[in-house]
Amino acid sequence: MVNKNLFQSSLICGFIQSLFLYMHKLPPFFIFIVSCGICGSVLNHGYTNSYFKFFDRAVMTIGFVINGLYINTFMYDSPDYVLTWCTMVGAVLLYLFSKFLKKMDIANLAITDVIHMMAHGLLTFLHMLLSIHLNNKCNKNHILCY
Length: 146
Description:
Number of domains: 1
Number of strands: 0
Oligomer: single chain
């Protein structure tokens, strides 16, 4: 069943993230991972298909690891280091909490959708922060961007 709320959320958040990918000088691998995440989310929430669901979850898992590596490697000396980690972990916890509520039938679909959309929003904020920091690193050290 297509979830229109999550589909629209993934489109809006994906558009915002795409703007940041386009506006900043970023490592190609970062652009690839975020782009795969956007595509996976839009496809998963726009179509009823177990392959899209698997792809979305696989990319989100890989993305968590890659984002963590980028945070630890390029933001360790930033005042935003803890905020960035909290944003990423918060997004994962919101996603898991929405799935828990849905599975346990504790909350209605509207509440679980809002919680899931909050996870989309936090991931968008995370990628905005990472884009800004990686862009600054790329401008100082061109090797990072190739």
